[in-house]
Design a protein that fits this description.
The strands form two sheets. The protein has a six-stranded mixed β-sheet. A six-stranded parallel β-sheet has the order 9-8-7-10-11-12, with helices on both faces. With 284 residues, it is of the alpha/beta class. Helices cover 37% and strands 20% of the residues. The longest helix is centred in the C-terminal third of the chain and has 18 residues, at 261-278. The N and C termini lie far apart (39 Å). The chain has two domains: 3-98 and 241-278, Leucine Dehydrogenase, chain A, domain 1 (Rossmann fold, 3-Layer(aba) Sandwich), CATH 3.40.50; 102-237, NAD(P)-binding Rossmann-like Domain (Rossmann fold, 3-Layer(aba) Sandwich), CATH 3.40.50. α4 packs across α5, α4 (100-110) packs across α8 and α8 crosses α9. The protein binds NADP nicotinamide-adenine-dinucleotide phosphate. NADP nicotinamide-adenine-dinucleotide phosphate binds next to α5 and α8.
């Protein structure tokens, strides 16, 4: 029997989720339909009875927090982050999960990047929160590097991180003050994202001596920051790996299966190729 899944958000624009999820359904051998449902915030609660009839759904902006009181159960990671991106529906009840941190950790580990030492996170928004929490939980010293108008959000995040791990070291600097002893730089700003692909959030000078760079941006696959990081001798990985791994984790939750790293690596390549095709960057 065909299973039913969906992505909910508003607006949804050029989402890669159906492409990635359909590839994963194929790989898992699951006969499934994955719908894209634009639901304005005012209609979320009213749509819940029909969403509960699905086998599961993904949740994106602006519903990641608003969905929480409408669910029957939350897993540990979703409670920690106060944010849900995956829902599993069974017998009319829904449990919320957050698979972003799994996606982030897998993107690093499969690229041979350690989450350890001194980590500089650029930005203090939603993605930065995931990266900062996981870095602190892994025992890293974290510097949040932000632009001036983002300082209040950075202070709030820093206070949360200190509550999470009172021994953890968290500091705040500006984007032109990335500390010299940084091991890993994580870009959690949209600087360098399509269509402003010539931009980088930091000067290339800050990449000297850095061991690795993770850029959450997935469009384009190779940002200026990643190109400069490779030139400086650092390991570099882009956001598509995180996007595909968080989707793979959602499917693991829905179907109780697990995927091989080599299969996910080929979906990451296909998704990058599909994105290049959609945005007219095909090399062929
Ligand atoms: P967000 O909540 O809006 O946060 C963006 C952060 O970047 C904020 O701190 C913002 O500061 C800062 N920022 C924005 N424009 C800037 C600029 N021109 N210069 C310096 N800082 C700037 O966004 P998000 O959801 O965290 O997403 C951030 C990036 O991560 C996006 O590119 C998104 O596509 C990517 N992402 C990727 C994945 C993945 O799976 N690969 C998942 C989530 C997000 P202000 O508050 O001052 O605006």
């Amino acid at each position: 029997m065909e299973k039913k899944f969906a992505l909910i958000g508003y607006p949804l624009g050029h989402t890669m989720s159906p492409f990635i999820q359909n590839r994963l359904f194929e790989l898992a051998g699951i006969n499934a339909n994955y719908q894209v449902m634009e639901i304005p915030p005012s209609q979320l609660e009213g749509k819940m009875p029909s969403l509960l009839k699905l086998d599961g759904f993904n949740v994106t902006i602006p519903h990641k927090c608003a969905i929480i009181p409408l669910l029957q159960e939350l897993d540990k990671t979703a409670s920690l982050y106060g944010s849900v991106n995956t829902v599993h529906c069974q017998n009319g009840a829904a449990k919320g999960y957050n698979t972003d941190s799994f996606g982030f950790l897998k993107a690093l580990s499969t690229a041979g990047i350690d989450l350890s030492g001194n980590v500089a996170i650029l930005g203090a928004g939603g993605a930065a929160r995931t990266f900062a929490f996981e870095s602190v939980l892994s025992g890293c010293s974290v510097t949040l590097c932000v632009r001036q108008q983002d300082i209040t959000q950075a202070r709030e995040l820093s206070a949360e991180l200190e509550r999470l791990s009172p021994q953890g070291a968290v500091s705040i600097k500006s984007l032109d003050q990335v500390p010299e002893n940084t091991d890993l730089i994580i870009n959690a700003t949209p600087v360098g994202m399509y269509p402003e692909t010539n931009a980088s959030p930091i000067l290339a000078d800050f990449l000297n001596g850095v061991k690795a760079v993770f850029d959450a941006i997935y469009n384009p696959a190779e940002t200026v920051l990643l190109k400069e990081a490779r030139k400086a001798g650092a390991r570099a990985v882009g956001g598509m790996a995180m996007l595909v791994w968080q989707a793979a984790r959602a499917q693991e939750i829905w179907h109780g299966i697990s995927f091989k790293e080599s299969d996910i690596a080929s979906i990451i390549e296909d998704a990058n190729r599909e994105l290049a095709h959609r945005f007219g960057r095909d090399k062929s």
